[in-house]
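Course assignment 3, question 2. Fill in each field.
Student: A.L.
Task: Predict the tertiary structure for the chain below.
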Amino acid sequence: MFREGVRQVVVSQFMLHETQHHPDRLQGETGPRMPRAHTLGDIYKCLHQGEFGPGHMIDDAGRFLERLTEEVHLVPAGGEEPVLESLAPDDSIFRLNLRPFKSLFPGEEVDNACRVLSLVCSESAGLREGTPERFFHKLTAFQTVNDAQALVADGTLFVYPAELVAGFLRDTLALARASQGVAVLGHSPGYHQLNAPSYRVVEEVVLKGSPLAFLMG
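Answer field:
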């Protein structure tokens, strides 16, 4: 069940950021293929956010709101993304994408929406108690489903070379042991180029109890 949950999370990311956003990149190709919008570091980041939540991002609430508001004003409204994309099989934590979020609040309403979202993020930051052991268990589960060629999204089989995944896991585990902590990774340049990520990480239970609960449909 744990392994299947990890598979579901990764497949949902591939469906959104490999097959739905970039279908032209799959035309004329058959058989298994490497993901193009996700390096292993992007998979790591997704599973890390699902395990530890957004806590590492909230160091100063006032500055966080300032950065959030600035980013929302800079990004174009709309886009092909959903407002929410799940980072857990039980939908207990989400990436809230700012482009579709902005499109829901015309004019000056967007500033108030940013203030509410900032509070949701701050409350979310202290809620999730992830553990390094469970996080690396997730990475190992990802390795298992990848090597079993079980990552199929919209009929397309995505596979990383087994030796690449094994080396990545060895390196990240060695780094965690040496630093006595779990590193926080950014998105890869390729992910930025193809997806231009602009989002915040929020907990479902906090979002559900906020004025933004309507975003959950």
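Instructor remarks: The first strand starts at residue 84 and ends at 86. The chain has one domain: 2-23+30-216.
Grade: pending
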